[in-house]
Amino acid sequence: MQLPVPPTPDQRSAEILASVRQAFVEKGFDGASMQDLARAAGMSVGNFYRYFPSKSAIVHALIEYDLADIHNVFQAILAAPRPMLALREGLRHRIDGTVHDHDPDLWSEIEAVARRSPEIGAAAQRMEQGVAGLLTAVFAAETGLTQDEATRRFSASAAFLVMLFKSASCLSCNRGSDQSELKAMIIRTIDQTLDDVITSAQKA
To answer: Average pLDDT for residues 170-195, to the nearest whole number?
Structure first.
């Protein structure tokens, strides 16, 4: 199954986004000024504004950038002989830290801002919906259902998996506690949810 390719930033914009991530993490969304972000990118403030006129614009661009990266990951999963197995392994490796994914500190910060900013909240929701759509594409490939039917039947399961992955990312930000047992519980719940999708499709 060929996924629709999302837009990606041009090379210079992508370089700027890579440089401002840490500034957001260190100072927080509200604490990082546009001057701070421009300095992190090694640019004058005036030139920086030419690329990103606001912090909200940066968050929107980060979402598009990371969605494009996630899209490539899912394209490889869909090309695997057993897509659901590839999905399980990919999620497990990212949760247990075998694969370092997008900065969890950054997305935890954006998640906090999304609760009080409708604009950022809508952008974050769009990202979650995009990931959920990719998950239902895997469900369709594994079960033989059409994309529309897989979405109709398993959209709640996909949203639940996104929620579980977000919870695991939040654990990564809390480095002062023993996370291994909690991560193992999340992985078991993910496996059970994927098993339920397959079982439900087989019973239909």
So the answer is: 81
